[in-house]
Amino acid sequence: MASEWWEPVRDYCERTGPELLAEPLNAVSNGAFVVAAFLLLRRGRSPDPVADGFAWLIGVIGLGSALFHTLAVQWAMLADVIPIALFIHAYFFLALRRFLGLSAPAAFAGTLAFAAAAAVFEPVLLRLAEQPLGLLSNGSVAYAPAALALFGVGLASLRFGKRDGGALIGIGVLFLASLTARTLDAALCPVLPLGTHWLWHLLNACVLFGLVRAARRAGPA
């Protein structure tokens, strides 16, 4: 029903009511994505339309997340998660092309395999652990496939003798730190009323900035 799209979402520690600005830090911290996009687009280097497209997508991620953390309703959540999912899968394709040198058809097949594996990752873990991992991780388990892919591509790139692999692994470590901030938001709420989700935004903006910069440095496949 249409009314369900307007159902409130109260998933974050900082939000204590339905007001538009009930999550000020969570909302404002999304500006970091816009700053990251701006810095990537203003860098005076040789043209790279693909990298520029990812920079614009980072800006969209920031705007979508800000919308969700102000309106906090079901439909706004889609504005938050869809651009993120698009970035993850599109960047995986790009990484296979630029860091591992795969052909476009092979990279596309690899991306489809990654998407399928990511879709079943949490259900399989749930079956094995017999624990609601989504609740225990505050939803961060959904990003585990992206983290594993980042480290996997980084290690494979190093194996092929490419320096970019080290950068990807370093960015992966930063991504784990950002996921930790996201995961601890609910658990630390009793002692940190503002939560830690805003720190996820700041760190993740740095992660996305680093990923696009690494892809730009690697150059077109």
UniProtKB/TrEMBL annotation:
Keywords, A to Z, come to: Membrane, Transmembrane, Transmembrane helix
Signal peptide range in chain numbering: none
Source domain of life is Bacteria
**Which parts of the chain span the membrane according to its record?**
20-41, 53-69, 75-94, 99-121, 141-158, 165-184, 196-215
Designated name of the protein: Ceramidase
Which taxonomic lineage does the organism of this UniProt entry have? Bacteria, Pseudomonadati, Pseudomonadota, Alphaproteobacteria, Hyphomicrobiales
